Amino acid sequence: MLMRLSHDIGLYFYDIVIARFDLWAAFGVLAQFVFGARFIVQWIASEKAEKSVIPMGFWFLSIAGGLMTMVYGFARRDIVIILPQTLSIFIYVRNLMLIAKERRRKAETELPT
C-alpha cells in the first residue's frame, strides 16, 4: 500500500511539474514569486523601523503580482483564480488611494500660513 501511494504521489508531481508545465505555468509561478516578494519587502521595512509597517512597495508588488496572477487565471480560464484576484486588486488600489489622500491631507496641514 505504501509503495503504491509513493508511486502515485510521484506520478502526480511528475504530471504537474513536468508533463503539464508550459509557458503559462512558468508565468504563473513567476506571478506567485512577485506576489510573495511583497512579504519580504514588508518584513525588511518592519525590521528597519523596529515595528510593523507596510511600505508602499508592498502595495505595488501586491498589484503587480495580483494582475499577473489574474492574467494567468484568464489564460487558464480558472474562475477560482480570477474572482479573488479581481477583488484583491481593487483593495490594493484602494489602499494606495487612501495613502495618497492621507499624504495630501498631511501636506495641507503642514503648509506654512
UniProtKB/TrEMBL annotation:
TM segment ranges: 23-41, 53-75, 81-100
UniProt entry tagged with the keyword Transmembrane: yes
A single cellular component GO annotation: membrane
GO molecular function: lipid-A-disaccharide synthase activity
Highest taxon of source: Bacteria
Pfam families cross-referenced by the UniProt entry: LAB_N
UniProt cross-references to InterPro entries, sorted A to Z: Lipid_A_biosynth_N
Protein name as it appears in the record: Lipid A biosynthesis N-terminal domain-containing protein
GO biological process annotation, one example: lipid A biosynthetic process
Keywords of this entry: Membrane, Transmembrane, Transmembrane helix
Top-level taxonomy: Bacteria, Pseudomonadati, Pseudomonadota, Alphaproteobacteria, Hyphomicrobiales
Annotated ranges, domain Lipid A biosynthesis N-terminal: 27-98
